[in-house]
Amino acid sequence: MKIVIIGAGKVGEELCCRLAQDDHDVVLIEQNSRRLEQLINMADITGVSGNGAVYRTQMEAGVDKCDIFIAVSPHDETNIIAAITAKKLGAKHTIARARDPEYSEQMEFVRDSLGINLMINPEMEAARDIARIIHFRSVLGIEQFDNGRVNIVEVLVAEGSRLSGHTLKELREIGQDFLVCAIQRGDEVIIPNGDATILAGDRIHITGTLDVLNKMYIAAGSFRQRLDTVLIVGGGRLTHYLLPLLLRLKMRIKVIEVDPERADALAETFPGVEVVCGDGTDQAFLQEERIANFDVVVSLTGIDEENILLSLFAANQGVKRVITKVNRTDLLKVLDGVNLGSTITPRHLIANIISRFVRALQNSQGSNVEALYRIVDNKVEALMFKIKSDSKVVRIPLMELKVRDNLLFAFIVRKGKLIFPQGKDAILPEDRVAVVTTHHNFQDIDDILEPRGNEPKP
């Protein structure tokens, strides 16, 4: 597909690298020529220097012939105008990022009336992700399939837990209705077989029925009782979107915001929330605000380093649940082995949404990928395929299929029934099958098979 992107910020960089890696023809429009050249050298893309909302610049970039136009510049108005212009020029599909809360309240109207296919808000998506993590209180992260019927959750294996030191074969006694999809051990990612051993400190990604998942949380030493109180440090856009979601969970909420005007605006907008004006990075101030008494601390300042230090302090104070917003994920590599709880990266969330949108368009053009999620710091793909009757994988026991390495079958949905497959199970036409793999750019379930002879790999 030919894809044109305007904006070379954090989201634009993520999209350029990811979409180019998936073999799309990517053109980047950016006014800062130095930044444009940097990304051209970083990713396999081409670029045009100029204002992405201007007709002349869009024509130079070939917007009139592109399949997807994505506007992720820093300014909402520029993105909306650029998307409208691109649609008029002939772009088949348009995506615009809009972050302002006022736009978010009328996003559906703006999208439908102006012909923009997808409008996305990084802070709103991050707020939903945080609320989901708090609701599923025993997990570090969660991805939902089949309209929420099936979850792949990330769980930390604690020291001395029942899982530590055991192989997956040995753990099957907990129950048959679960599967360990991936193990993250430091920088290493393992797509496990039955002989893989779980160690303390591993982050395991598992799927299963809710009852069995609850047993797994207990066995991993990560089970938590209900979370009732939350302290949020930082009162920006993300907090504005997060507060209504947490109020629906009937939580007692305190927000610390250093800017007096912003603190006053939050207090006025959300009278049911306690808002305190102060420096949330000052440890003495946090102790005065009784940080240790909160079930959850969410670090949402605009500076990654502050968020990381704040979360480390909260964990040191005995807070049960810590959630950290980090934009520059390279910082996490420096802190390898340090437990920051759950980390939220808005640009990853938006890149994932757009990747799923692109994959859905490919689906309409011949791919049979129904859903796509990236987990384990984007190193692993979890895909759901709709199985056609002429597929090469049907009616063959899974143990007899010659599939690529670093790949496993997570679950099968068959006529509404959820199956966690074993070697003797076979895939049937009309099944919906979830596959977890370190390989990228699968378009068809048959791509999972080991290629024969000189067959190209996807």
Please provide a written account of the structure:
With 458 residues, this protein is of the alpha/beta class. The chain folds into four domains: 2-120, Rossmann fold, CATH 3.40.50.720; 127-220, 2-Layer Sandwich (Alpha-Beta Plaits); 229-344, NAD(P)-binding Rossmann-like Domain (Rossmann fold, 3-Layer(aba) Sandwich), CATH 3.40.50.720; 366-448, Alpha-Beta Plaits. It is built from 15 helices and 22 strands. A six-stranded parallel sheet has the order 3-2-1-4-5-6, with helices on both faces. Strands 14-13-12-15-16-17 form a six-stranded parallel sheet, sandwiched between helices. The two termini are 15 Å apart.
Short summary:
The chain is an alpha/beta fold and 458 residues long.
What's the topology here?
Blueprint: E1 2-6, H1 10-21, E2 25-30, H2 33-42, E3 46-49, H3 55-60, E4 68-71, H4 76-89, E5 93-97, H5 101-104, H6 107-114, E6 118-120, H7 122-135, E7 141-145, E8 150-156, H8 168-171, E9 178-185, E10 188-190, E11 203-208, H9 210-220, E12 229-233, H10 237-248, E13 252-257, H11 260-269, E14 274-277, H12 283-288, E15 296-299, H13 304-316, E16 321-325, H14 330-334, E17 342-344, H15 346-364, E18 369-375, E19 380-386, E20 407-414, E21 417-419, E22 432-437
Parallel strand pairs: 1-2, 1-4, 2-3, 4-5, 5-6, 12-13, 12-15, 13-14, 15-16, 16-17
Antiparallel strand pairs: 7-8, 8-11, 9-10, 9-11, 18-19, 19-22, 20-21, 20-22
